[in-house]
Amino acid sequence: MKDVIHTIGNTPLVEITSFQNNPRVKIFAKLEGNNPAGSVKDRAALNMIRSAIERGELQKGDKLIEATSGNTGIALAMIGSMFGLDVEIVLPASSTRERTLALEAFGARFTLLENLEACRDYAEAKAAKEGFFILNQFSNTDNYQAHIKTTAPEIWRATNGQITHFVSAMGTTGTIMGNSMFLKRENPAIKIIGCQPAEGATIPGIPRWTKEYLPKIFDPSRVDHIVDIEEQDAIRRTRELAHQEGIFAGMTTGGALHIALQVAAGIAEGVIVFIACDRGDRYLSSGLFG
């Protein structure tokens, strides 16, 4: 018998067929919402907690605090409860009620602050002064190692090594860093495309980082192109993905699809994989779906 942690990973890779007509270009979505806590962050959360426990840094009964836009927090709440940790999550006040309800369901406490930068400052200060353990996903190499161990090998196998382009939104940048490290090692010609909000755009989960808060795990040399996403394009593609492909995902996924389609329009042939990072039910109260 296996517990729910063993269901993290091995998510489906499905072809997207509704948006472009070039038979020599295929686009696939990696459905990370199929993870048990509902997002790609299940992978990083598990690897960060498990690695800290193996190093003797964390043990049952410890108090864990983490700043997050939401998905990592929900994953930490679920996994932390299974390892007997006391979890507090710090997230922006703009987070949907579905997110905070999920945290409560897994038994975590939460604190809401004005933005993700403030959340990071608060969590780091509390960890320094009040005896909390902080994973600090923005500078924790166990974050991207999760994707070297799991996500990227899954994509490589599922595409029979034929992937030519990888597209991912950039939050902590753990997903794009880990996948780039593995995929470039297998084939240096694979293009890695990162997505960030355009100036003034708001896309939950992916801030447009200032230099001061840029995640320390981010290495720009591992990303071939960084592309801006307009808010309305992300919303439109998210809705189209649900209506035309039956994929119910969040706004970052719509943004990644939009960039994947731009890539597809500019190449004669190839295999593009983008990360569908979470489930759409996390955004129902936000008006994302109309």
Automatic annotation (TrEMBL):
Gene3D superfamilies documented for this protein: 3.40.50.1100
Location of the Tryptophan synthase beta chain-like PALP domain: 7-278
EC numbers on record: 2.5.1.47
Cofactor(s) required for function per UniProt: pyridoxal 5'-phosphate
A biological process term (GO) from this entry: cysteine biosynthetic process from serine
MF annotations from Gene Ontology: cysteine synthase activity
Keyword terms of this UniProt record: Pyridoxal phosphate, Transferase
PANTHER family in UniProt: CYSTATHIONINE BETA-SYNTHASE (PTHR10314)
Protein's recorded name: Cysteine synthase CysM
Name of the gene encoding the protein in the UniProt record: cysM
